[in-house]
Design goal:
Oligomer: single chain
CATH topology of the domain at 2-135: Serine Threonine Protein Phosphatase 5, Tetratricopeptide repeat
Low-confidence stretches: 1-10, 18-23
Largest sheet: none
Shape: elongated
Mean pLDDT: 90
Helix content: over 70%
CATH class of the domain at 2-135: Mainly Alpha
Number of helices: 21
Number of strands: 0
Structural class: mainly alpha
Strand content: under 5%
Distance between the termini: 34 Å
Radius of gyration: 32 Å
């Protein structure tokens, strides 16, 4: 309904600017136009059109009289939802070029909005294009043009309208319109552009974070074979941080991965969360959940091997395990010492885990610094970028 209100609102502005002064019009034209304006203001749009028709029937009208008749007729037709009459009357005024450019733009906007509201997407595209060609910059009209293209089955054209507009908003440091982002995502999806879709999904997570957006983004990440190895548990950690451990299989899989990685305390915390939330301990997986809780409890009580002072990798691993166990201060210090000593197989993974440790400790500023230090464009860098978004929004 917002589009219809836009069309009516634009027409109301045009009516308000029309001065039907009797001394500049012949009485035969002025009287029905004045009646039409009064009926319009009373929201009796069809009756207003009938009065406009009386003025239109007057023979020998001057150009000025014809323009005022067309202006009143176009406004009443838009409000009445009569696209044919509106396009005829406003089209004549636009074609004549005697109206100020700003007024012509309002007419084009009204016609595009009405055409879209009535499902005439081809005509909505036509008027939307003409509006854009005048240099008008209303972002809502740009979105309307993109929606018209999309509904007409041309997702590629819709993307070409939206992408520059969205990029411009982000370059200016502003959040793009949520509807524009969602439409852009649909455009990429329609075109089978998975990379484009994922990029917009990440922008939705950045500007409008919700568990649903996070869930879809992380589900796609889990489906990527690159994350199925050493970073699978880290993806689950991000799912947990964004409230996206939803199913019993999520809790069970994360807990099992944590046990296999030697993080028994983390596994027990995950299992307990699953039981406390009512996801585990019921249904066909009830017995499996109980067995997993026993296994996680046993793993959490196992003594951890002491890190060798000169072994950077062992210090990082032990420190991260301590951070996951709730011993944040000691664990963070060990990770930082291990990073300083070097000799790590993957320093970026260690920096990622340092960021997670700071996040769990509630030190978000230091977490962001640690995530910023993750270099390259591999899996650790992707996760660090997403963890930064989560850190800022949770």
């Amino acid at each position: 309904m917002r589009i219809l209100f836009l069309a009516i609102g634009v027409s109301a502005v045009l009516v308000g600017k029309s001065g039907f002064a009797a001394e500049t019009l012949r009485p035969d034209v002025a009287r029905p136009l004045q009646t039409a304006r009064a009926l319009y203001q009373a929201q009796r749009y069809r009756d207003a059109l009938a009065s406009v028709a009386q003025a239109e029937a007057v023979p020998g009208k001057s150009q000025y009289e014809s323009d005022l008749v067309a202006q009143m007729g176009g406004a009443a037709a838009v409000a009445a939802g009569d696209l044919t009459v509106a396009a005829r009357d406003y089209g004549l005024l636009i074609q004549g070029g005697r109206q100020p450019v700003a007024e012509q733009q309002k007419m084009m906007a009204a016609l595009a909005s009405l055409a879209y509201q009535q499902g005439n997407y081809a005509q909505a595209v036509q008027w939307g294009q003409r509006y854009q060609s005048t240099g008008a910059g209303d972002p809502h009209m740009k979105t309307l043009l993109a929606q018209s293209y999309y509904m007409a089955g041309n997702a590629g054209a819709a993307e070409k309208v939206l992408r520059p507009a969205v990029d411009a908003e982000m370059r200016a440091g502003r959040a793009p319109d949520a509807d524009a982002l969602k439409l852009l995502a649909s455009c990429y999806q329609k075109q089978g552009d998975n990379a484009g879709y994922a990029a917009v999904l990440e922008q939705l997570v950045k500007y409008y974070p919700t568990p649903a957006y996070w869930g879809e983004l992380l589900d796609r990440l889990q489906a990527d074979p690159k994350f199925a190895g050493g970073f699978e548990l880290d993806v689950y950690r991000l799912k947990r941080a964004t409230n996206n451990l939803g199913s019993a299989s999520d809790y069970i899989e994360m807990a099992q991965l944590a046990i296999l990685a030697g993080h028994g305390a983390e596994a027990l915390s995950v299992v307990n969360q699953g039981f406390n939330s009512g996801v585990l301990g019921k249904g066909p997986d009830a017995g499996r959940g109980e067995r997993l809780r026993n296994l996680a409890t046993k793993a959490a009580t196992q003594p951890q091997p002491a890190a060798t002072a000169g072994n950077g990798a062992a210090l990082v691993e032990t420190g991260f395990n301590e951070a996951l166990s709730g011993k944040s201060q000691h664990g963070i210090a060990a990770i930082e010492t291990g990073l300083a000593k070097g000799g790590l197989a993957d320093p970026n993974e260690a920096r990622l885990h340092l960021g997670i440790a700071y996040y769990l400790a509630g030190q978000k500023g230091k977490a962001l610094n640690a995530f910023d230090a993750v270099a390259g464009n591999g899996e650790a860098a992707t996760l660090a970028r997403l963890w930064k978004l989560a850190t800022r929004s949770t």
